[in-house]
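Whiteboard transcription, Tuesday session. T.W. wrote the structure tokens on the left side:
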């Protein structure tokens, strides 16, 4: 089946099933015992997902790396066991979870080029259940790349950006500071995982507590780039911050390194060259999250736009560095213990807003047991939050003073 023809079939299913899907009150659940992803005798792969009810769906492939993406409106993945379902030698790995509010996503990493040959959602009208059956067939690399690409459909489109956003005026201390708090990862992208704890959950909890503290101070307006367990791409995080008129962007993480060397809170700013090997590894892990979630990163900034943004970042970088130093000082004073080299830099995509001073705060490393205990302790989080508020107070005063001098 040709790729374009398959997309038409998916669109037709959406059109005919939309009214029925809107009436469903519960999420579709996956019956793991009746589901499988296995190789076929003709060198292909067959995907069989047994669902408790039919749902609208779409699927498409992406290249570099090769991935099959299946989106649903909407599936509850609780109890889904990839070790039981994945039986194929041609699928290297899979991920699943919430992609957007109302959307669920399944991503399969393909070890070789495989295109969709057949897809069908079989509905059992007696039981009300459904079976999604997809067959993948081997193709050449050229054929695979020609058929791959982002799915384009208004019914599945993301909310349009606000083209009328006004340029941000640098704060001079005459209004509350607007702080964008960015809880890392989310949805299908869980981030680090240790002892059953997920990074995406821990940083969302901290971010909510930080937002509340900032608002209660009366000196700040604060919003989160994500308020639930949903995926937000790296560029979208910056867009959301700009839409809320952010003066400051704080990205919050709690990563893990395979060798477990790192410990303690660290503050990162943007740099083309990483401060050390660990900083470079973290930047690569963070940027890979979009690929893991099946996001197409083929569209790049054009040369002129990149040059203009680099020029804008010259001033913002100085302000970001000052913010990072204040964060290190504030958190250090409040917690009493921080890393030996607490201010580092690396090429984190999420810090590339040319007009918003931005830092990334690694609260600690889940690969270190002491750090993990801290992350789980309210009293420790409260100390860090006091340190962040103190840092913002100090930075806002200094930044406003510099802005007033520039105006004179």
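and on the right, the sequence the group agreed on:
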């Amino acid at each position: 089946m040709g790729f374009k023809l398959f997309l038409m079939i998916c669109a037709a299913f959406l059109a005919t099933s939309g009214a029925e899907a809107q009436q469903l009150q519960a999420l579709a659940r996956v019956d793991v015992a009746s589901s499988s992803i296995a190789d076929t005798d003709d060198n292909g792969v067959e995907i069989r997902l047994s669902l408790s009810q039919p749902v609208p769906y779409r699927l498409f492939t992406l290249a570099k790396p090769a991935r099959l993406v299946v989106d649903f409106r909407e599936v509850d993945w609780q109890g889904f066991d990839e070790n039981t379902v994945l039986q194929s030698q041609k699928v290297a790995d899979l991920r699943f979870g919430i992609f957007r509010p109302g959307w669920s996503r399944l991503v399969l990493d393909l070890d070789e080029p495989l295109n969709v040959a057949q897809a069908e959602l079989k509905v059992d009208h007696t039981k009300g259940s459904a079976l999604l059956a997809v067959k993948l067939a081997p193709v050449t690399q050229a054929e695979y790349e020609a058929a791959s690409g982002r799915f384009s459909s208004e019914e599945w489109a993301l909310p349009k950006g606000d083209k009328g956003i006004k340029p941000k005026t640098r704060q001079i201390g005459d209004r509350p500071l607007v702080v964008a708090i960015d809880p890392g990862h989310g949805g299908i992208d869980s981030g680090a995982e240790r002892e059953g704890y997920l990074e995406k959950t821990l940083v969302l909890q901290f971010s909510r507590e930080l937002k509340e503290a900032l608002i209660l101070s009366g000196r700040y307006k604060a919003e989160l780039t994500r308020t639930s367990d949903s995926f937000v791409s790296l560029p979208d995080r910056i867009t959301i911050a700009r839409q809320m008129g952010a003066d400051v962007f704080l990205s919050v993480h709690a990563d893990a390194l395979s060798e477990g060397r790192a410990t303690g809170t660290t503050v990162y700013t943007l740099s083309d060259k990483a401060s050390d090997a660990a900083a470079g590894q973290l930047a690569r892990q963070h940027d890979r999250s979009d690929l893991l979630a099946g996001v197409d990163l083929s569209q790049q900034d054009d040369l002129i736009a990149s040059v203009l943004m680099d020029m804008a970042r010259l001033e913002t970088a100085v302000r970001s560095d000052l913010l990072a130093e204040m964060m290190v000082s504030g958190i250090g004073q409040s917690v009493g213990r921080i890393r030996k080299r607490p201010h580092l830099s690396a090429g984190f995509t999420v810090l590339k807003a040319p007009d918003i001073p931005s830092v990334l705060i690694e609260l600690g490393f889940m690969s270190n047991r002491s750090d993990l205990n801290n992350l789980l302790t309210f009293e420790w989080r409260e100390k860090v939050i006091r340190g962040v508020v103190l840092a913002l107070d100090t930075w806002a005063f200094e930044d406003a003073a510099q802005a007033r001098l520039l105006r004179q």
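Someone added at the bottom: The first helix runs from residue 3 to 23.
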